[in-house]
TrEMBL record:
CDD domains: RHOD (cd00158)
A molecular function (GO) term: thiosulfate-cyanide sulfurtransferase activity
Transmembrane segments: 122-144, 150-171
Protein's name in the database: Rhodanese-like domain protein
Signal peptide: none
InterPro entries: Rhodanese-like_dom (IPR001763), Rhodanese-like_dom_sf (IPR036873), YgaP-like_TM (IPR021309)
Keyword tags: Membrane, Transmembrane, Transmembrane helix
Record-linked Gene3D superfamilies: 6.10.140.1340, Rhodanese-like domain
Rhodanese domain span: 22-110
Organism: Coleofasciculus chthonoplastes PCC 7420
Taxonomic placement: Bacteria, Bacillati, Cyanobacteriota, Cyanophyceae, Coleofasciculales
Amino acid sequence: MVLANANNLQEIDAQTLKQWLDRQQVMLIDVREPGEYASEHIPGAKLMPLSNLNPTGVKPETNQQVVLYCQSGNRSKQAAQKLFESGFESVNHLQGGLPTWKSAGYQTQVNKNAPISLFRQVQIVAGTLVFTGTILGAFVSPWFLILSGFVGAGLVFAGVSGTCAMGMLLAKLPYNQRV
């Protein structure tokens, strides 16, 4: 199934993507960060992270559709906007991202030696900062509670806006750049 919106961004489901992949009618682009791609991706996908996506590098062969995907669909929509701004007239993205592909029962390429997911890294760092701020606030000075409050406010902002500054910073660490 293919759904289109005003920007000519078409949302496709996993079944349509699978059919196009089988017929080699697609240039599939993973716009997640290298660490995420390294841990799991759809076979045949090219890595072009949204953080440094260069639309001139997207060169589909004749009769190929450009399909973007990420973890949830948010980053692929942002990547599609970059492609539209550079002159692409039609771009597709996988509705629901990688989880949709997996829930349809299609295979992924998994690397057990890849770094842990960015989401888990954010949980570990945020939890450590909140815990440390709380302990220091209770036993050293109440001013350390500002640290816990700051991290909590950042998590609320990340949830509401769909952008996570801590995640973007962690994605730039060297161990998250390996593919």
